[in-house]
Amino acid sequence: MIQLLWLIPALPLAGFVILALGGARLSRRAAAWIGVGSVGISALLTLALAVAFLRGLPAIPAHIRQVWTWFDVAGLNIGVSFYLDALALTMMAVITGVGFLIHLYSVGYMAHDDGFSRFFAYMNLFVGAMLILVMADNLMLLYLGWEGVGACSYLLIGFWYRDPANGYAARKAFVVTRVGDTAMAVALFLLFDRLGSLQIQELMQRAGAQWGVGTILPTVVALLLLGGAVGKSAQLPLQTWLPDAMAGPTPVSALIHAATMVTAGFYLIARTHLIFELSPLAMSIVAIVGAATLLLAGFSGLCQTDIKRVLAYSTVSQIGYMFLALGVGAWAAATFHFMIHAFFKALLFLAAGAVIHALSGEQDLFKMGGLRRELPLVYLVFLAGAASLSAIPLVTAGFYSKDMIIWEVFASNRGGTLLWAAALAGALLTSIYTFRMFFLCFEGPLRTPVAHKPGWNMSLPLAVLAVLSLVAGFLEIPHSFGGGVQIFSHFIQSALPATQLLPARESNEILCQLASAAAALGGLGLVWWLMLRSPQAGAALTRQPLAMKLSRFWLNGWGFDWLYGLLFERPYIFLAQINRADIVDGCFTLLARFGLALNALAGAAQTGRVRTYAAGLTVGAAAIIAWVVWL
Amino acid sequence: MVTIPFSHGLLLAAALFLLGVICVLTRRNIIFMLLGLEIMLNAAGLAFVVAGARWGQPDGQIMFLIVLAMAAAEVSVGLALVLEWYHRMHSLDVDQASRLRG
Amino acid sequence: MQSADYMALLPLLVLSGALGAVMLLIAIGRHHGLTALLTLAGLAAAVAALPVAAARAPIRVTALLTIDGYGLFFMALVLLATAAVALLGYAYFRSWSGHREEFYLLLLCAALGACVLVVSSHFTAFFVGLEILSIALYALIAYPRHRAESLEAGIKYLVLAAGSAGFLLFGMALIYAERGTLDFTALAAAGGVPATLQSQVMLLTGLSLLLVGVGFKLALVPFHMWTADVYQGAPAPVTAFVATVSKTAVVALLLRLLAPMGAQSGAAFSQILAVLAAASMVGGNLLALRQQSVKRLLAYSSIAHLGYVLVAVLAAGPAAVPAVMFYMAAYTLAQLGSFGVIAVRSSRLTEADALESFSGLFFRQPWLATVFTAMLLSLAGIPLTAGFVGKFYVISAGAQNHLWWLIITLVLTSGVGLFYYLRVVVTMFSTSVPVDLTPRPVVFSGALVLTISTVLLIWLGTAPEPLVRLLQNMAP
Amino acid sequence: MNTLFYLAAAVAILATLLVITRAHAVHALLYLIVSLLAAALAFFLLGAPFAAALEVIVYAGAIMVLFVFVVMMLNLGTHSVRGERQWLRPAAWVGPGLLAAVLLAELVYVLGGWSAPATTPAAIGPREVGLALFGPYVLAVELASVMLLAGLVGAYHLARPQKEAEGEA
């Protein structure tokens, strides 16, 4: 079974090739079958593979498959080799499984779009690139997947390229993540240069053997890697691209947020966790970035009017949780939250897509409302997703994963009370903005008429994801619940280390859980009271001058775009204006002129006369002998 | 038999060789260029004979023989080319053969 | 000579036999297709005889020839490239009247010379092999004698090749006068420590003069000036032969001659080689920059490619010999394909080598344009083509021997190279009005060569490991 | 004997100098034959009688006759000699002369310092050469025949009388 590993990324890539070459010649039906089928078979293969892998546990925690050796020259082996362990398998399962559901949903969502087969081509490529990224055993391949994901996000965010705003959003995503990519590329070169290998596992071993804990080199490498991770995962300070990336079709947003792209940063840190563990400083920075991001994004989420932007900020915030967990060494909790988040975030985006679809493209929350009776299924699944996102205790999967993070942030030897407080505040914020969105969307009077109802191919993924968002949490039930269930963390600990908990704090687990439950329920209660129970109080609150100012500030994402505009764009434009004569280009032109001058010089000897050529021959002979004689 | 230093034999060869080089570089007439090439090749053959004589081996003379054969083959193709060229251009000026350049 | 010797010589004997058979066929009656077929059969038989010879390798057949894995690999390369040229030649000459059959006769002669060259381990065999190749090439280059360009190219090649052969001979004579042997291995055995400084100078002067001859054949700067004119004037299949077989054979010989002598490690001589390599890389790439003739452009680029090869020759590490072998194989493929494209597009009177005639080719003959693009990308060293792996191999061989300056020159000049290769590619994809609207149908034999070389090019670029292993076993 | 060698050398150089400066091709050819005869004498004195004989027979005999034949065939009249005089202005000689002088200086430097023993060599007659030729060098002889064949075929193809429609379909 493990032999078929290579098929998993190969199928979506093959789908991409067929769709790209076939283009408009393929019927919609054929394009849908190829696009959805390739990912679907990959998902089935992943499932089969997971069974085989679980059978091999715990004796064989990892498999390496060399699929193709490109070349093996002078000790440098470059090729396609895949690495399969619990982490990679979890990622693959989410990418193919959730990816498949999103593809299936897209058949309905994009049914009337002109670029139907182009859309599926890009989506397949996106899934394929992401699979290569998570399965890669060497840095070359990982980087290939990394850049592939970046290129696909550019293509898909700007999918409706006729609107210049979409193109702008796509370019923004591309450029901002590129800042992180550069840092990451530097890190990869540094690793290769210092440790002399491209194989990730070998690198990790050598790093552990050659570098001491807390030395400068692992810190530098870890921070550069973090640079790449925050770019792709939209964390502070490179989070600005993600809300704008909502310009793409909604399934694209679901794919970017749930299964691909933004989780790449999380994956990178988890994959290279040995290097991060060598640098306590870098770990702390990861945790702080995570905590700061989750709060910042939570506040921004409070004031958005566009349903997709609320979800975008919630993604930034939830990934912040994952980074926080990574930073405190709660590897299993981070991975668990990644998985659960993929379920409910895909669900929320797809459900939001169904709403937008139903309202003929309307995305403004204040023009929605009263959809509970019109779209009962969407209402139910959205409720499941929102509850999971808000971590409503006991009945949602989101509770188990988020609670695990909050508890381990509190109890880990790398954690702390301050980080815990931030996480808790974030939980409260999450609950508030989630249910604000939910109530605005489904309660109250109907403001826009419903045009389309979702078909089976849109409803089915929603139902499956809704179930998963509720029940997947039972894979991991805390100790305090009568000993609990630890299936997931046992599984993931074959690849990632267990969290180091402080013994002094372990007894407080139940208290901590009560606090996070209170935060989630409190947020829900507050929103319910302000919006449904006594709307006058809510309206009064929003009319406060301070609230309005804050609202505008948060609506614009804490003014980061404005800040970056001031710090980077203005000076850049200023410099560009000074440089209208284009100094750098002038240098290149000069170089080209120089080349052409040399060309003319060398070409002057090409007279076409045989005697000139013979003279050249003789001069060469004389020069060589002169060299020999006088040396 | 002579008892001259072998370097003198080689110097004679070098002098003849360079006269051949001058001929190739200076003359515009293709026939003279071919003559210059013959002078060069003959000089190289002479050098081989001198070197063979130094070591008392027949190898030098054998190389001379090969050079002789090569000179004959090359001259026959060369003169055939010259005939064809003259037939076409009605001139032996090698500088006219400069259409291809640049 | 014993029976084992004859077995080891079998490829050469078969080739000579094919030569005789083709000659007889022409004497009996002229038939273009039949002659081409017999030539191909002879080449195929010679290739089939290679394993027989390999079973006896390594073996010394008289003092003149050494049949070993290294030589047999290059022989295979020469024979296969010659077969490709014969196929291209068939496509090229098919619609001509007049005598076309001597082309194959001369081609077989030239191939025999090249095969002798790659297994020679003696100055005599070296010289005879080189001259068989040269003399056959004089006639091949001027073969379409109704074209003034071809005659001009023939005359230029003849005068310069004979002149450089004179330098080469004089150099050999000096080496012989100093060392008393014409045998490469004996020369290397005697060449360990020169007795005096003066005898060192004598030897080096001899080697330098020899280098003039070799540098001419390889078209290294400053012995390169003939290249573009001859490439442009010669009929395209012959140009392909000059660009591939004659260079491959001489490179094989150069490495066989220099490696045992340790000439690469000698200070003065290795400096000269390094200067020639750098000059060729810079000069070749610069000259190609503004070419409007694709044949001339490829000619100048071939100068640069031989400069790259010289870097590996200079490296002389364990990776150097397989690197040279791989690079020559990749280079041969790409050049055959490139000139093949020109050959199948050429008409009786003119060669289709003007850059503007390629404008918009992709929309008229997409397959042809794709092949040419693949070839050019390989020459430029783009990943997933054979050219990239070859260049990578050369660079790593150079890096093992710390030839940093040469490697930097290689990388920088390759960047320049990218510019003019892409210029041709862009021209093919441009949508401007094409010059000739009626594409010539591609003759089957030409299409066969182009397809096979493209497939091999991509295969070597994506899965080079088998060949690399083979080469590592074959290298001495 | 030594004097005879230097005399032959002087004649060879002088005759060659005259070859390269003649305007008339036939004159040049005759001087070249003189030069080749002098070289043959030098061969003989160096103990290579077989090479000397071949120099006279093949070089001076066959190859030069080929040249004469072609020159006669082209029937170059006085106008070509006049053109030749025009091309052979003194300025044309400066560059090549300087270049050759540099090369000569280098070779004189290299060879002048070269100290090979000036022993009396034993003559190597046709017998030794023949034995070597058909012993260890037999392959070279065979290959030389291919070389001559290439020359023959090439010359035949190129100098064949041309039909007007050559190359046309």
How would you describe the overall organization of this protein?
The complex is a heterotetramer of chains A (631), B (102), C (476) and D (169). Among the domains of chain A are: 279-555, no CATH class; 561-589. In chain A, 73% of the residues lie in helices and 4% in strands. Chain A has 27 helices and four strands. In chain A, strands 1-2 form a two-stranded antiparallel sheet. In chain A, strand 1 (63-73) and strand 2 (76-84) form a beta hairpin. In chain A, helix 3 (86-109) packs antiparallel against helix 10 (250-259). Chain C has one domain (3-474). Helices cover 77% and strands 1% of the residues of chain C. Chain C contains 19 helices and two strands. In chain C, strand 1 (59-61) and strand 2 form a beta hairpin. In chain C, helix 6 (148-179) crosses helix 9 (226-233) and helix 13 (320-345) runs antiparallel to helix 15 (366-380). Chain C is globular. The model of chain C has no long low-confidence stretch (mean pLDDT 90). With 169 residues, chain D is an all-alpha fold. Chain D folds into two domains: 2-121, Four Helix Bundle (Hemerythrin (Met), subunit A); 125-160. Chain D is built from seven helices and no strands. The termini of chain D are far apart. The chains are: A mainly alpha (631), B mainly alpha (102), C mainly alpha (476), D mainly alpha (169). Chains B and D meet through helix 1, helix 2 and helix 3 of B and helix 1, helix 2, helix 3, helix 4 and helix 5 of D.
Which descriptors apply to this entry?
heterotetramer; C: mainly alpha; two-stranded antiparallel ribbon; 19 helices; 1% strand; D: mainly alpha; Four Helix Bundle (Hemerythrin (Met), subunit A); globular
Topology (elements, then pairings):
The complex is a heterotetramer of chains A (631), B (102), C (476) and D (169).
Chain A: H1 7-22, H2 28-56, E1 63-73, E2 76-84, H3 86-109, H4 116-135, H5 139-157, H6 164-195, H7 200-210, H8 216-233, H9 241-244, H10 250-259, H11 262-271, H12 273-277, H13 280-303, H14 307-327, H15 331-358, H16 371-374, H17 376-390, H18 397-411, H19 417-442, H20 456-471, E3 476-477, E4 485-486, H21 487-492, H22 509-533, H23 535-543, H24 545-555, H25 560-578, H26 583-604, H27 610-629
Antiparallel strand pairs in A: 1-2, 3-4
Helix pairs in contact in A: 1-2, 1-4, 2-3, 2-4, 3-4, 3-10, 3-15, 3-20, 4-5, 5-6, 6-8, 8-11, 8-13, 10-15, 11-14, 13-14, 13-19, 13-24, 14-15, 14-18, 14-19, 15-17, 15-18, 15-20, 17-19, 17-20, 18-19, 18-22, 19-22, 22-23
Chain C: H1 3-28, H2 32-56, E1 59-61, E2 65-67, H3 69-93, H4 102-119, H5 123-141, H6 148-179, H7 184-190, H8 197-218, H9 226-233, H10 236-261, H11 267-288, H12 294-315, H13 320-345, H14 361-364, H15 366-380, H16 386-400, H17 404-429, H18 444-462, H19 465-474
Antiparallel strand pairs in C: 1-2
Helix pairs in contact in C: 1-2, 1-4, 2-3, 3-4, 3-10, 3-13, 3-18, 4-5, 4-10, 5-6, 5-10, 6-8, 6-9, 7-10, 9-10, 9-12, 10-12, 10-13, 11-12, 11-17, 12-13, 12-16, 12-17, 13-15, 13-16, 13-18, 13-19, 15-17, 15-18, 16-18
Chain D: H1 2-21, H2 25-45, H3 49-74, H4 78-87, H5 90-112, H6 126-133, H7 138-159
